[in-house]
Each structure stands twice: as C-alpha cells, then as structure tokens.
Amino acid sequence: MVGTIFLFLLSFFSAPEKVLLRGSFYLLRIMLFTGIINKEMNMEWRASHILVKDRPLADDILKRIKQGGQFESLAREFSTCPSKSSGGDLGWFGPGKMVAAFESAVKRLSPGSVGDVVQTQFGYHIIKCTGRKE
C-alpha cells in the first residue's frame, strides 16, 4: 500500500528527482526496519523531580539526597511544582514531552538514580529516573 502510494507520487517528479527520492525512500525503510529511527521514538521514561527557584537550595537538597535523605519527602517539603503532592512523580512520558534539558538529563540516568541539578526556564530540577521502557 505505502509502496503504491509512493510510486504514484513519484510520477510527478523528473528522472533525477526520482532517483533521489527513491533512494531516500529505501534508506528510510532500512532505518525503520533496523530500528535506527524507532528505538528512541518508542522509548518512555518515568521520572520524579524537585523543582526550586534558586541554585543554592537545589544543591543543598541534592546533598541531602546523597546523604540518604528520602527523595519523595524532600519533594513534598521543598518543590514548587504541583507534582510535590505525589513526591515529585511526573509519570511516564515519551520523547518531546518535556523541555529539552530535562529530557536529556533523564535519558542519561538509569532507573533509581538521581542526577545533578538541571536548570530550565522553570527553575532548578533535581531529577530521579524511576523507570524506562522501550
């Protein structure tokens, strides 16, 4: 079906354009088949965070977590995000659902780990990755 539609659309282009388009089409199919494109598009992460307005407070909270403080209770106490009522839990999300700096930080974390302080336009985040699925 997709191939038929592609061939129909291809009839509107000149010979050199057809070669380029046909090559791009097959490259795209190979990338989809091998999972090069789909791998990250199907990824989902689950994260919790503590959002605060200033860096010194974020650094202090991160220090407390590294010394054994409970992430969820610190989120309830200090976070300015509405997610604080659930211990900072943001639930599951896929690519493009969070601001770039936040998403990038979550991607680097393994489930259960807490990353360094991340700054976004919303403030300073202490992020804990709580899940990952493909």
Could you walk me through the main structural features you see in this protein, from its secondary elements to its overall organization?
With 134 residues, the protein is α+β, with helices and mostly antiparallel strands. The protein contains 6 helices and 4 strands. Strands 2-1-4-3 form a 4-stranded antiparallel beta sheet. Strand 3 and strand 4 form a beta hairpin. The protein is elongated and about 55 Å long.
Q: Kindly report how far apart the N and C termini lie.
A: 28 Å
Spell the H/E element sequence.
HHHEHHEHEE
- Rounded mean pLDDT score: 84
Please give the count of helices.
6
State the share of residues found in helices, binned by percent.
40-55%
Largest sheet: 4 strands, antiparallel
Low-confidence regions: none
Which overall shape is indicated by the principal axes computed on the Cα atoms? elongated
Q: How many β-strand runs?
A: 4
Roughly what fraction of the amino acids lie in strands?
15-25%
Q: Looking across the biggest beta sheet, what order are the strands in?
A: 2-1-4-3
Radius of gyration equals 22 Å
Give the class from helix and strand content and strand pairing. alpha+beta
